[in-house]
Amino acid sequence: MADLQRRIAELEGGGRPRRHRWRSVLSAVLVILAALLAVLSVVAVWTDSIVGDTDRYVDTVAPLAGDPAVQTAVTNRATTVILEQIDVKALVGELSAAAAQEGSPPAVAKLIGELSGPIENGLKELVSATVHRIVASSAFETLWTDANRIGHRSLDKALTGKGGGAVTLKGDQVAVDVGPLVERAKDELVKSGFSRAASIPEVHSDFVVFSSDELAKVKTYTRVLQIVGTWLPVVTVLVAAAAVLLAAHRRRVLVTTALAVAFGMLVLGVSLTVFRGIYLDRLPAAVSQDAAAAVFDALVRFLRATIRAVAAVALVTACGAFLSGPSRPAATVRRACSGAVASLRGAAGSAGLRLGAVGRFVHRHKRWIGGLILAVALIVLVTWSYPTTAVVLWIVAAVLAAFAVREFLDDADAAAGKDPRGAGKAPRPS
Fold first, then answer.
1. pLDDT (tens digit, 9 = 90+) per residue, 412-422?
2. How far is CA 217 from CA 226, 293, 303, in A?
């Protein structure tokens, strides 16, 4: 009687024993924490890959060499640097003096002296055309890639405000040295007949890749994210697993956790878009908006890909957990899939296919085979370097195909000792 009264009290209290309430509360807290950690994990892994993986960094910035807006900005910067090294007034004076020495009328020498403006503009067009020809060629792509690859070894120091190389951090800017481009342009100018370019000294000038007043703070955050980037995803998975294991309704909490992570990815993606607009609005007027936008998009390209991949994994997990549950829609989907596979197996059996020992083995170890399929898929996903949404979808397709094959090979009739044509086998003599 006492036990019956206790059960009635539990039912009147909502059907959940009081001793499980604290576990439910803790599980809910861990779900929220897992979603937050998932967002930080994605950013941390991206940061660590940009700083620690040279190939990843080069793949990130290499497309910028072919972007028209970036090419124009680099051309303008290199042109300005070269013209700063040429004394146009002195050049005009030499032309006037040379004209006078050749016996030209004084009016001609005077006219040459008054043409400093047009001469400067013509010189600017010559230099700009030469530089742009280099920037638009495959030579610049090689130069850009090599400079960034060589400079990446100092990027870690650059993010702390130290170090040298092609990639440096100065004040509130991340910059790439375009000195090699200037040197290449000097040679081309000399070949085109402008011998004065040979006297241009070796110069180092920066093309600003990223600029922000908050870069001092970003340096600190970036360093922290780089340090935790390798193990934070593991902590996130463990927290999510703890949230599910503590819950009274584990399948329901697994679905909730997966949806929370997917929502976190959505928020992170929207935040990137909002930050992009704020960043571009705060740039100085002299900075090319198109080039800055191209650089920003290139830097976060792999981050966006990771966001989409994690969101895809979360949504697939939520769908899988839901479809394995007892709800009517889930049961309907499972029956439809099982019916389709059973029809295919029946047709194959009518055509003479006999599964025999294979069918009995699969039926006997069906759960273990399903677990093995999921384990292999998880290992492939975890060990894949920077999986994309396409990779996730291909893995899901492979898992679904493997489960379909398992269902096809699951011969319950053979395992029960029945004839595949419907007649039961005679029992074996004892």
1. 665 555 554 44
2. 14, 21, 20
